[in-house]
Amino acid sequence: MILVLDYGTGNLRSVQKAFDYLRIPTTISDQARLIAKADKVVLPGVGAFGHGINAIRSRGLDSALTEHLAKEKPLLGICLGMQLLLSESQEMGVHQGLNLIAGKVQPFNSQIAKVPQVGWNRLRNLRRDSLLFKGLDEGIHFYFVHSYYCCVEDASAVSASATYAGENFAVAIEKNGIFAVQFHPEKSGTAGLKVLENFAKQ
Question: 169 vs 11, which has greater pLDDT?
Fold first, then answer.
Protein backbone atom coordinates (compact mmCIF):
# COMPACT_ATOMS: atom_id res chain seq x y z
CA MET A 1 0.00 0.00 0.00
CA ILE A 2 1.11 3.54 -0.80
CA LEU A 3 0.00 5.96 1.92
CA VAL A 4 -0.43 9.65 1.06
CA LEU A 5 -0.10 11.59 4.31
CA ASP A 6 -2.72 14.18 5.12
CA TYR A 7 -1.41 16.78 7.56
CA GLY A 8 -3.56 19.67 6.38
CA THR A 9 -1.38 21.11 3.61
CA GLY A 10 -3.41 20.49 0.48
CA ASN A 11 -2.79 18.94 -2.98
CA LEU A 12 -3.63 15.46 -1.71
CA ARG A 13 -6.30 14.70 -4.29
CA SER A 14 -4.19 15.77 -7.24
CA VAL A 15 -1.40 13.45 -6.07
CA GLN A 16 -3.86 10.61 -5.59
CA LYS A 17 -5.43 11.24 -9.01
CA ALA A 18 -2.01 11.00 -10.64
CA PHE A 19 -1.48 7.58 -9.06
CA ASP A 20 -5.03 6.62 -10.04
CA TYR A 21 -4.18 7.46 -13.65
CA LEU A 22 -1.25 5.04 -13.37
CA ARG A 23 -3.63 2.45 -11.84
CA ILE A 24 -1.61 2.46 -8.64
CA PRO A 25 -3.86 2.33 -5.55
CA THR A 26 -3.24 4.77 -2.69
CA THR A 27 -4.78 5.58 0.66
CA ILE A 28 -5.02 9.08 2.14
CA SER A 29 -4.82 9.33 5.93
CA ASP A 30 -3.57 11.50 8.80
CA GLN A 31 -3.16 8.51 11.13
CA ALA A 32 0.38 7.73 12.28
CA ARG A 33 -0.57 4.10 12.96
CA LEU A 34 -1.21 3.51 9.25
CA ILE A 35 2.37 4.43 8.38
CA ALA A 36 3.52 1.18 10.01
CA LYS A 37 1.24 -0.76 7.65
CA ALA A 38 2.30 1.09 4.49
CA ASP A 39 4.82 -0.21 1.97
CA LYS A 40 5.59 3.33 0.81
CA VAL A 41 4.69 6.79 2.06
CA VAL A 42 4.19 10.03 0.13
CA LEU A 43 4.62 13.32 2.02
CA PRO A 44 3.04 16.00 -0.20
CA GLY A 45 2.47 19.61 0.74
CA VAL A 46 2.00 23.25 -0.16
CA GLY A 47 2.12 26.28 2.12
CA ALA A 48 4.29 27.44 5.00
CA PHE A 49 7.04 25.32 6.54
CA GLY A 50 6.19 26.24 10.15
CA HIS A 51 2.56 25.22 9.80
CA GLY A 52 3.52 21.98 8.07
CA ILE A 53 6.13 20.82 10.60
CA ASN A 54 3.87 21.69 13.55
CA ALA A 55 1.02 19.70 12.01
CA ILE A 56 3.29 16.70 11.46
CA ARG A 57 4.56 16.73 15.04
CA SER A 58 1.14 17.29 16.59
CA ARG A 59 -0.09 14.12 14.86
CA GLY A 60 2.96 12.06 15.83
CA LEU A 61 3.85 11.56 12.18
CA ASP A 62 7.51 12.51 12.68
CA SER A 63 8.40 9.48 14.80
CA ALA A 64 6.25 7.22 12.62
CA LEU A 65 8.16 8.36 9.51
CA THR A 66 11.48 7.69 11.23
CA GLU A 67 10.34 4.16 12.09
CA HIS A 68 9.14 3.67 8.49
CA LEU A 69 12.59 4.53 7.14
CA ALA A 70 14.30 2.36 9.75
CA LYS A 71 12.44 -0.57 8.19
CA GLU A 72 14.01 0.41 4.83
CA LYS A 73 10.67 1.40 3.33
CA PRO A 74 10.62 4.23 0.74
CA LEU A 75 9.40 7.76 1.44
CA LEU A 76 8.67 10.43 -1.19
CA GLY A 77 8.50 14.13 -0.27
CA ILE A 78 6.86 16.52 -2.76
CA CYS A 79 7.40 20.32 -2.75
CA LEU A 80 6.92 21.38 0.91
CA GLY A 81 7.24 17.68 1.70
CA MET A 82 10.82 17.79 0.40
CA GLN A 83 11.65 20.89 2.43
CA LEU A 84 10.29 19.37 5.64
CA LEU A 85 12.81 16.53 5.36
CA LEU A 86 15.70 18.94 5.86
CA SER A 87 17.23 20.18 9.12
CA GLU A 88 15.73 23.65 9.24
CA SER A 89 13.92 26.37 7.32
CA GLN A 90 14.29 30.14 7.33
CA GLU A 91 10.71 30.73 6.19
CA MET A 92 9.14 33.38 8.44
CA GLY A 93 11.59 32.68 11.25
CA VAL A 94 13.75 29.64 11.93
CA HIS A 95 11.98 26.29 12.17
CA GLN A 96 13.49 22.87 12.85
CA GLY A 97 12.63 20.26 10.25
CA LEU A 98 12.56 16.47 10.37
CA ASN A 99 16.36 16.41 9.93
CA LEU A 100 16.25 13.28 7.80
CA ILE A 101 18.51 15.03 5.28
CA ALA A 102 21.09 17.57 6.46
CA GLY A 103 20.43 20.98 4.94
CA LYS A 104 18.55 24.27 5.11
CA VAL A 105 15.60 25.82 3.33
CA GLN A 106 16.37 29.38 2.23
CA PRO A 107 14.46 32.16 0.39
CA PHE A 108 15.00 33.16 -3.21
CA ASN A 109 16.24 36.70 -3.81
CA SER A 110 13.17 38.59 -5.00
CA GLN A 111 15.39 41.39 -6.33
CA ILE A 112 16.84 39.05 -8.95
CA ALA A 113 13.72 37.21 -10.12
CA LYS A 114 9.99 37.05 -9.49
CA VAL A 115 9.16 35.13 -6.32
CA PRO A 116 7.58 32.64 -6.06
CA GLN A 117 8.89 30.65 -8.97
CA VAL A 118 5.73 29.54 -10.76
CA GLY A 119 5.95 27.49 -13.92
CA TRP A 120 8.20 25.12 -15.82
CA ASN A 121 11.91 24.81 -15.18
CA ARG A 122 14.59 22.60 -16.67
CA LEU A 123 16.36 19.98 -14.58
CA ARG A 124 20.14 19.73 -14.68
CA ASN A 125 22.76 17.27 -13.48
CA LEU A 126 20.52 14.21 -13.41
CA ARG A 127 22.40 11.52 -11.55
CA ARG A 128 23.10 8.55 -13.78
CA ASP A 129 22.03 6.02 -11.15
CA SER A 130 18.82 7.92 -10.33
CA LEU A 131 15.82 5.71 -9.69
CA LEU A 132 13.28 8.53 -9.82
CA PHE A 133 14.42 9.74 -13.25
CA LYS A 134 14.93 6.34 -14.85
CA GLY A 135 13.81 6.59 -18.47
CA LEU A 136 14.01 10.41 -18.50
CA ASP A 137 16.67 12.58 -20.13
CA GLU A 138 18.79 15.50 -18.99
CA GLY A 139 17.02 18.82 -19.51
CA ILE A 140 13.51 17.52 -18.88
CA HIS A 141 11.08 20.19 -17.63
CA PHE A 142 8.89 20.01 -14.51
CA TYR A 143 6.34 22.34 -12.93
CA PHE A 144 7.39 24.36 -9.86
CA VAL A 145 5.58 26.59 -7.36
CA HIS A 146 7.85 27.74 -4.50
CA SER A 147 9.46 30.75 -2.85
CA TYR A 148 12.14 28.84 -0.91
CA TYR A 149 14.76 26.35 -2.06
CA CYS A 150 16.74 23.49 -0.52
CA CYS A 151 20.45 23.70 0.27
CA VAL A 152 21.49 20.07 0.81
CA GLU A 153 24.80 19.47 2.60
CA ASP A 154 25.46 16.01 1.17
CA ALA A 155 25.98 16.46 -2.57
CA SER A 156 25.78 12.70 -3.09
CA ALA A 157 22.13 12.79 -1.96
CA VAL A 158 21.16 15.19 -4.75
CA SER A 159 19.90 13.49 -7.92
CA ALA A 160 18.93 16.63 -9.87
CA SER A 161 19.25 20.40 -9.66
CA ALA A 162 17.80 23.51 -11.29
CA THR A 163 18.62 27.21 -11.55
CA TYR A 164 16.43 30.16 -10.60
CA ALA A 165 16.98 33.67 -9.20
CA GLY A 166 20.72 33.23 -9.51
CA GLU A 167 20.75 30.03 -7.44
CA ASN A 168 21.65 26.50 -8.47
CA PHE A 169 19.72 24.36 -6.02
CA ALA A 170 18.71 20.77 -5.31
CA VAL A 171 15.36 19.76 -6.76
CA ALA A 172 15.56 16.01 -6.11
CA ILE A 173 16.98 13.82 -3.37
CA GLU A 174 17.63 10.08 -3.33
CA LYS A 175 19.35 8.57 -0.31
CA ASN A 176 18.74 5.57 1.98
CA GLY A 177 15.13 5.11 0.93
CA ILE A 178 14.39 8.84 1.03
CA PHE A 179 13.15 10.30 -2.23
CA ALA A 180 12.09 13.92 -2.64
CA VAL A 181 11.31 16.44 -5.37
CA GLN A 182 10.79 20.19 -5.16
CA PHE A 183 8.60 20.25 -8.26
CA HIS A 184 5.06 18.91 -8.54
CA PRO A 185 5.13 15.61 -10.46
CA GLU A 186 1.32 15.45 -10.31
CA LYS A 187 1.23 18.68 -12.37
CA SER A 188 4.11 17.86 -14.71
CA GLY A 189 2.46 15.77 -17.39
CA THR A 190 4.03 12.60 -18.73
CA ALA A 191 7.41 13.23 -17.11
CA GLY A 192 5.82 13.72 -13.70
CA LEU A 193 3.80 10.55 -14.03
CA LYS A 194 7.00 8.69 -14.88
CA VAL A 195 8.61 9.93 -11.65
CA LEU A 196 5.63 8.72 -9.60
CA GLU A 197 5.64 5.38 -11.42
CA ASN A 198 9.36 4.99 -10.77
CA PHE A 199 8.83 5.66 -7.06
CA ALA A 200 6.00 3.14 -6.90
CA LYS A 201 8.37 0.49 -8.25
CA GLN A 202 10.86 0.94 -5.40
Answer: 169
79 is catalytic: yes
Active-site residue identified among 68, 79, 95, 146:
79
- Residue 11 pLDDT: 79
The answer to whether the beta carbons of residues 91 and 109 sit under 8 Å apart is: no
CA distances from 158 to 62, 95, 107, 108, 178 (A): 22, 22, 19, 19, 11
Look at residue 49 in the predicted model and tell me its pLDDT. 94
**Domain 2-200 part of CATH 3.40.710.10:** no
Would you kindly state where each structural domain of the chain is located, as residue ranges?
2-200
Active-site hit among 68, 95, 146, 184: 184
Verify whether residue 186 is a known catalytic residue. yes
